Amino acid sequence: MASTETRSVVVEREFPHPPEKLWRALTQPHLISEWLLKNDFVPTIGHKFKLEVQNEKFSGIIDCEVLVIEPNKTLSYSWNSMGLETAVTFTLTPTKNGVHLRMEQSGFRPDQPKNFAGAKYGWNNFFARLETTLARID
Fold first, then answer.
1. How many CB atoms lie within 10 A of CB 110?
2. Of 17, 13, 15, 14, nearest in space to 138 by CA
3. What does residue 120 show for φ and ψ, rounded to 5 degrees?
4. Distance CA 102, CA 86 (A)
5. Among candidate residues 92, 65, 81, the one with its CA nearest the CA of residue 119
6. Which residues 6+ apart lie within 8 Å of 58 measured at CB?
7. Which candidate, 19, 26, 28, 36, places its Cα nearest to that of 92?
8. Could you give the percent of the chain with pLDDT greater than 90?
9. pLDDT tens, 27-70?
10. Which of these CATH numbers, 3.30.530.20, 3.40.630.30, 3.30.230.10, 3.40.30.10, describes 8-136?
11. Which tens digits make up the pLDDT trace of 128-138?
């Protein structure tokens, strides 16, 4: 029987901003485009949207669907592309100095080590760009 164990990429970071500001960066299409990818996101459960990837290594579409939305707390959506079927969940926790963000992309199969490594690398880059976006917006 094939293994059904999956792995997750987890990136956690604390930002010196209120949860509401981080929430805007996670849910407003023009801001998502700045730090993540070009998109047609709408913060409504069941909304199907696309993330558009265009870089030197890859060009394509990631099909997504909003799964969970709890304003300023939790955002989750499916992330499906080229045989990869995962879910991305952002969890916001207020802290003394701002907000702690935990991002988990779950569902990587054992036969997807390249996807797993790519996601690990990618999310760290996305988070660096997210910091820049947050510093710029009011």
1. 12
2. 17
3. -60, -50
4. 16
5. 81
6. none
7. 19
8. 88
9. 999 999 999 999 999 999 999 999 998 878 778 999 999 999 99
10. 3.30.530.20
11. 999 999 999 98
